[in-house]
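Write out the bound-state structure for magnesium ion.
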Amino acid sequence: MQMMKPSMKHEGESAVLVVDDTPDRLDLMIMQLRKAGYHVLAAHDGREALELAQREHPLVVISDVMMPNIDGIELCRRLRADSELQTTPVLLVSAMRVGDASAIEGLEAGADDYLEAPYDGMRLIAKVTRLTERARFDAAIRESEERYALAARGANDGLWDWDLRTNEIYFSTRWKSMLGYEDGEIGACAEEWLKRVHTDDEEALKAEIQSHIDGGSAHFEMEHRMLHRDGSYRWMLSRGMVVRNSEGRAYRMAGSQTDITERKRAEERLLHDAFHDALTGLPNRALFMDRLSHAVERAKRHDDYSFAVIFLDLDRFKVVNDSLGHSIGDELLIEVGRRLEAGMRAGDTVARMGGDEFTILLEDIKDSDVAVRMAERIQQKLVLPASLSGHEVFTTASLGIALSTIGYQRPEDILRDSNIAMHRAKISGESRQQVFDTTMHSHAVALLKLETDLRKTVTEQEYRICYQPIVSLKTDRIAGFEALVRWQHPERGLVFPDEFIPVAEETGLIIHLDRWVLREAAAQMRKLHERYPARMPLTVSVNLSAKQFSRHDLIRQVEQILCDTGLDASNLKLEITENVLLINTDSVNRMLTQLKALGVELHLDDFGTGYSSLSYLHRFPIDALKIDRAFISRIGAGGDNSEIARAIVMLAHSLGMDVIAEGVETEEQLLTLKALGCEYGQGNLFSPPLDVSDLEMMLGADANGENNLLILRS
Ligand code: C2E
Ligand code: MG
Ligand code: MG
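---
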């Protein structure tokens, strides 16, 4: 049997040590033992024997009792006192009878057996064999115990051994320390274990143990929580196995306990991460779709249950990201997520779909008004400026609402429709919301096609520029034109910029497009100057997307175009939107200053629709404000609605800026604007945007520039 082999640390451990001061007796014994196959070490007195034993670690010591100095009994005592030799079996040999005083003394000193002399060789060998076998067995046990103890310590697991008959249970020191206790602080009954098991796990654990005891499982294994001394719960893996008697009845069960708290936490994190957005911590698309599909199913079963999906997309998020950097962009998304979540009812889900898109599932709503009111509340919350790493950032969002009352069969469909409605809201302007209706679907399909077409349009041949006169309200004469781009779509005909500019911005095509418009318009204006010198100086206003300001070659390009076309810089106005100011970085400010230095004027377009703070304005080298037509159209529309226009004119003048009114359509508006002291007007009242040929016809008919307004308004 493998276990019976002693370890071979020393040659002497498998040897037998014989001690006798009488040489004849010693020789005889050596001979008898060697014949029986033993390796023999010999000593002639007690001292020599002790030295040999300490050096060689014999398996058994056979000693004469009567010896000078250290006798057999004293040798026995000294061996027992030596920690390494205390278990080495000793056989005393003497003429004394067993039961004699010295024989008893010998046994008391720790001798294992006694051999009366004279003896016969067979008896000696029988006794030595028994003792060596026992020594080997003990060594094997010791070794296995050591190995077990080492393994238990090394595995870092706690161990338990449960006597099912007495219900007594042994817990290892490690088992206790895993729960924060010292060795003496936990008793030896099963209750010490069970009472610390989390109440939610207790029943299952007991059932698992019982099932194993009853033979229902090959081994017991369970993950459960255990109460630690510090009051927290730790996840443990408990494993064990029963020992059965010959009738198969379990009488003992032993096993281990492993702390798996870390692994459990990692699993929980993974699970959480799989369903949540890492940046905002909100549910992600997967979790949202899961909740949405439940809502769809529920609505199918219960007629009285309805829900809504709000799809939210931040306006101008790309501008923030491109200009202030991604970390501020990230902060803004976190802030938006926080604001959205703050206003929700308990059962609603706010999720981040990715990018600057968020979705909200409003469950169990009474009617569509609830969703619309919620959308309004969201708009109000988002409009407040966010202070992000020292920057004041303004944001708005476009919201699309889809209602379950349409009768959706699949969650993807209602999500798609809320997205379509959001795009609709976006087209109608920033910070708008729109409820989905079925006609939007066909429109969305058309829009998608447009986007695909635009991406395919690589040449400028499909673009055209129209020119809309800008009129001086002081002189009633044309002061210049705004260049407005159109897309001559091969199938759809003329497409207006509101439809394709957002797409061009998204795809990056705008950079190329804007520069093409600038070059064409500058060249065209230069041509008009040559042809109609009497109409000098006519200016041209060109729109520049905020995107241009992320390009460092913008200034060089403008300079190059002026140089190539020969247009005087003072005749060029660049129209920028508030988005550009919102970027508000040093680099943008530097670029604006450099443009000004070229001699170009800067006009702030669509003024009043953005959310840039008015207090910013003085920091930028802006020459004129263009009041958005939304404010002009209010003038004269029942009651006096000219306050905003009035305020903007006053503000501009106080900052030394001119004002251009956009979208002037009625005489009444014109009169009011004149009364307010507004410098310029642009709008259908004077002229819609004109083709180059119409423009030339107009200028040609009025070559000396005297009665242009008459022509325009006739
Ligand atoms: P915008 O710069 O504010 O241009 C004025 C818009 O108002 C033009 O629309 C013009 O046709 C329209 N408009 C002028 N007078 C009236 C009026 O009396 N009533 C009404 N209802 N509308 C009037 P359009 O041409 O559709 O351009 C829309 C926007 O597209 C422009 O607004 C501008 O922001 C952008 N855009 C146009 N061309 C370019 C371009 O080359 N580059 C860039 N980046 N954007 C452009
Ligand atoms: Mg403009
Ligand atoms: Mg405008």
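---
The CA atoms of residues 343 and 377 lie 8 Å apart.
The first strand starts at residue 15 and ends at 19.
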